[in-house]
Amino acid sequence: MLKDMELALQRTGLQTAETNPVKKSRLKPWMLIIPPALFFLIFLIWPLLQIFALSFTDAQGAFAAGSYVKFFGSDVYLKVIATTFRVSLVVTLSCLILGYPVAYAMTVCSKKISCLLMIAVMIPFWTSLLVRTYAWMILLQTDGVVNSILKSLGLIHQPLALLHNEVGIYIGMTHILLPYMILSLYPVMKGIDRNMILASRTLGAGKAHTFFRIFVPLSMPGVSCGAIIVFVSSIGYYITPSLLGGTKNMMISQEIQVQINRLMNWPFASAISVILLIFTYVILFFSKKVMKVEKLW
What is the CATH number of the domain that holds 188? Predict the structure, then answer.
């Protein structure tokens, strides 16, 4: 009797499923991109368009390109651009010189030491950028820790000027951006096939020859990636150059802040922002062509 009832229920369920098929969902896969696309348009594209439109106006709001003529026609602002690129280039080279040995050591040392080094690299990300910059202000001042140590060792007799100049900017920005270089180099170095290194050594090449002719060329994608990240990030830095460099070595981000907060010249500040954005995209475009980092794009 129970079996007959179960069979009847099963047949009833099958008939119901045939007569009332499950409706397919009307939600299409491409609809999932609508929320992030709206967020992107509202909070990025629209403000950029407003800044671009504002850069082509004058103080009365009329259409004018005087802000761009003023920027490229003045030696002062061209000097700001030159300072920005010089600082960014020096910081990028400093990060590469300091970060390459660290990333290489992380790939050849034991797993335990490699983990400790990775923790040391990641610790700065857990500290506020502003706090780290103020810490460097204390260390680099005339009576700071750095000058005191150099005096005690007898290396200097007068305090070195390490603050409110480009030296302070280089030190502070290198410390902040160095982890980005290391984290760009490490995965690439870790993925290099060690059999190629062994093959080179087997064929009679020395350690130095193998390192510079085999390992370094294979690590160039990481070098390119780290250099691009550090250089582009350096161009738009504001807090560290303002606190450690002062007003004598202004970068383009500092000039934008001056035009907005002190002079209230929004059209000119918008023009400088557009110029900075264009320079950034030009750098990214040529880096793709020159460095051949297709995997990054």
Answer: 1.10.3720.10
